[in-house]
Amino acid sequence: MKKHTNLLIPNTFYHIYNRGINGEDIFKKEKNYAYFLSQYKLYLEPVADTYAYCLLKNHFHLLIKTKPENDIRSHYETKDNEFIINSIPHFISKQFSHLFNGYTQSINNAYDRTGGLFESPFRCIEVHSDTYFSQLIWYIHFNPQKHGFTDDFRTYPHSSYQSHLQLKATKLKREEVLSWFGDADTYIKYHTCQIDEKGFEKFIIEI
To answer: For residue range 75-116, what is the model confidence (pLDDT) as tens digits?
Structure first.
């Protein structure tokens, strides 16, 4: 799948990422992070499972797996609901548009701005190998340290790194991620190893 296409096919892993238009901050204040996640839950939870994420001041990264077509249809199409989804790939993409548009409207109202907030279209890369899957989780979590938002990515509050290691309830695919690496100790060890970023250059958002 080409990196700038918006159509996401069901039951497929993707690296989703985007930034503020012209590098503008998309999270103006601390409370904006929580609001973005609430809107993410509203629009994307029914169509995708989330394996890892990181929200930074002016961009974000996600590792998701789109849900199977039947699961998406069963969530939205009921006997009492005449709404019929003609194209699941278009519908999944539309859910992302709803997320970005709704969040933008909220930011515009709160901070007296107008116009778009996110670059369009958002970027999506199909995760096509086991190696890419493992390195992508590390890359997403390492991003705040890479871009100088923190001295230690492990303490950054707006990523899934710590959520994978905690016991409190989460919508993240925590058990699947930890099992992928073997266990929590191996997950931690993998994140502390220096990993070559070669192969990620084309996915890096310049800020």
So the answer is: 887 756 667 788 999 999 999 999 999 999 999 999 999 999
pTM: 0.90
Q: Is 188 exposed, middle or buried (0-12, 13-18, 19+ CB in 10 A)?
A: middle
**pLDDT score, position 120:** 87
In a domain, 127, yes or no: yes
Of all helices (H) and strands (E), which one includes residue 3? none
| CATH code, domain carrying 73 | 3.30.70.1290
- Give the residue numbers spanning the domain of 160: 13-200
Is residue 8, in this structure, part of any structural domain at all?
no
- What whole-number distance in Å separates Cα of residue 110 and Cα of residue 94? 24
- Residue at 22 is within a domain: yes
